[in-house]
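Project outcomes to date are best conveyed with an example. Our students and postdoctoral researchers have been running inverse folding experiments weekly, and each run begins with a structure described purely in tokens. The record below, which covers 102 residues, was selected by the lab manager from last quarter's runs and is presented without edits.
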């Protein structure tokens, strides 16, 4: 979005008040000013994603999954022995593959 702030109700009200005082001769100018103000704060077309940001996001997902899987893997290994350990390892593989697949 642009750095231009949205027009307040007071600004729009002052434009309408000025339009009434100036008369119908200035209607087109007032309409143009309102249209320009609306265009200045409306969102523009979506920007394409930066590739480095996308790669950084993938790294963050994988790092978070690995950091959280260490204690979960320890608990699962203690509670369900090898089956729990391999279950968490399988979930880690799914998370990594889904992050890399994007």
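After processing, the design step wrote out the following sequence:
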């Amino acid at each position: 979005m642009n750095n231009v702030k949205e027009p307040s109700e007071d600004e729009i009200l002052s434009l309408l008040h000025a339009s009434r005082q100036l008369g119908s001769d200035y209607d087109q100018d007032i309409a143009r000013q309102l249209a320009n103000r609306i265009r200045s704060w409306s969102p523009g077309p979506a920007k394409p994603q930066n590739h480095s940001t996308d790669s950084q996001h993938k790294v963050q997902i994988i790092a978070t999954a690995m950091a959280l899987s260490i204690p979960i893997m320890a608990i699962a290994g203690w509670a369900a022995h090898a089956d729990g350990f391999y279950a968490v390892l399988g979930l880690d593989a799914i998370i990594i593959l889904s992050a890399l697949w994007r």
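Residues 18 and 53 are 47 Å apart (CA to CA). The two ends are 26 Å apart (CA to CA). The training component of this project remains on track.
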